[in-house]
Amino acid sequence: MKRQTTGLAALGLAFMLATAPAFAQRGRGPGGPPAGRGPTGAPGPDSSSQGSGDSSHRTSAMANSSPSDVLSHNTAIAGKIKALTGQDAQTACSGFKNLGQCVAAAHVAKNLDIPGGFDALKAKLTGPNAESLGKAIHDLKPDADANAEAKKANKQTADDMKEGDS
């Protein structure tokens, strides 16, 4: 019995050693992240979404880029912002940390007919005492369900970014 167990253990070890090079060629070991990904599964320093076909990753990257960088390459989003705010997209989005914040603010201002319009909301979001979108909605339109409206605007923004990415 002991001889069989030892034989099976040796066979298992031989199998593991024989297949180890195959895992190394694929860029991951058992349970490891896919090739091109860091230890947490996040994109590695040399990975890129260009040409990967992963539009959700590009959309996320686009939302987190500076507004002027994205707007210079994406006329669809720029047109959407102009339609929502009545302002040139570069002007409307100046001061926002990322394009997603700008588009969400534009949607909220339009959806709720915010007193003072987009400019009043923008001042609350980008000013020296910048507030969250929910707090700014509550301040400018106290009767609105600020959380639901912020969530709705974020969904609209995600849809816009997907549309503009295609």
What does this 3D model show about the protein?
The protein is mostly helical and 166 residues long. Helix content is 65%, strand content 0%. It contains nine helices and no strands. The protein has helices at 2-26, 55-64, 67-71, 75-85, 89-93, 99-112, 117-126, 133-140, 146-165. It is globular and about 35 Å long. The N and C termini lie far apart (64 Å). Mean pLDDT is 74; it is low at 13-17, 19-33 and 35-60.
First and last CA, distance: 64 Å
Backbone structural class:
mainly alpha
SSE order in H/E notation? HHHHHHHHH
The whole-number mean of residue pLDDT values reads: 74
Query: Any low-confidence stretches, pLDDT <50, length ≥5?
Result: 13-17, 19-33, 35-60
Radius of gyration: 25 Å
Helix content: 55-70%
- Count of β-strands: 0
Largest sheet: none
How many H/I helices? Answer: 9
User: Shape, please?
Assistant: globular
Strand residue percentage: under 5%
Structure keywords:
single chain; 166 residues; mainly alpha; 9 helices; globular
Task: Show the helix and strand layout.
Blueprint: H1 2-26, H2 55-64, H3 67-71, H4 75-85, H5 89-93, H6 99-112, H7 117-126, H8 133-140, H9 146-165
Summarize the structure.
Helix content is 65%, strand content 0%.
